[in-house]
Amino acid sequence: MDLVGCCKAFVSVTEAGSFTGGAAIARIPQPVASRRIAALEKHLGERLFDRSTRRARLTPFGRDLLPSAQRLVRLAEAMEHDAQRARRRPLRLAVPDTSTTRDLAELEAQARTVEVFLEFRVAGPAERAELVRTQEVRAALVAVPPEDGGWTVPLGLAGEAEPDEAVVHLETLRAGRSARARRRVWMQPEDDVPHVRDRMFRARDAAGLLPAQVEVAGTLTTAAASVIGSADLLLCSADQARELGLAWRPVGGVRLARGYDVAAGLGDDVDRVRTPLRAAIARCLGASVAAD
Question: Where does the record place the HTH lysR-type domain (predicted)?
Fold first, then answer.
């Protein structure tokens, strides 16, 4: 028996003075209200209403039980209110600094349509994983090898000059006689992870570049500033290049990509973020969605 539902019908019929009016207050059909009150009477072992009159008049037993029923209904309503408020509590999500304010705003707006209320914490790849571990955030978009991730962001090289070729070959950046003529590739902190950094360093060595020609900048802003007004190149996504007004090309002979997945302290939070927001997160990251 649904004790709370039965008590709601009991209280509503009492307030209205009739089964029809009480059913309307409780927003249930009148036969349902009658069945619930009959079930409650059977459960309690006594009649709650005097059926000999046209109005729903309480029996002495019903009058004695009414205050308890009212308290139970109020508690149930308070619990429903608290549950609704708890569902709207923000889910703090750690995200990369590569997404624009517009990207994050669109992700948050999409999340609201599925009753997920996000609050963002921008952080680097290592910090995002640590924030989940220490429970400072409920979930994070963590960096993983692209083959293991739910989202993949292809990387290439971008610069101010429009390249002549469809791809950029690292061999074309070999150092000349003058140190001033050496072109550098700048990496941003988001790509200072083994599956990007180590692969880039191996490609650098295979192309015969000097170690100093591939460098990790302290911030994305610093990396971009080093490219603007120079012949240097920025390792970045196509979306980042467009935002910065740079010409982007893939890197020849090596596949470079970021991979992302959701990490959370609770499995339910992983599902709340990953499943309904899969496409929205892809748009936010400028990513393709990995096949299931």
Answer: 1-59
213 is written with which tokens? Answer: 């020609």
CB 91 within 8 A of CB 119: yes
CATH number at residue 11: 1.10.10.10
- Closest by CA to 48, choosing from 12, 80, 1, 97, is 12
Single-letter residue type at 122? V
- The predicted structure's pLDDT at residue 285: 94
Q: How far apart are CA 62 and CA 286, in angstroms?
A: 64
Beta strand 139-144 pairing with 257-264: antiparallel
Query: Positive or negative CA dihedral for 201, 202, 205, 207?
Result: negative
Residue matched to tokens 């570049």: 209
Beta pairing class for 57-58 and 49-50: antiparallel
| Vertex 147 angle, CA 143 and 152, to 5° | 60
Q: Are residues 210 and 125 in the same domain?
A: no
Q: How does pLDDT run across 179-199, given as a tens digit for each residue?
A: 455 789 999 999 999 999 999
Q: Is residue 162 part of a domain?
A: yes
User: Which of 212, 236, 211, 213 is CA-nearest to residue 223?
Assistant: 236
What pTM was estimated for this model as a whole? 0.72
Q: Which domain holds residue 143?
A: 91-148+259-285
Together in a domain, 158 and 250? yes
Residue type, 221: T
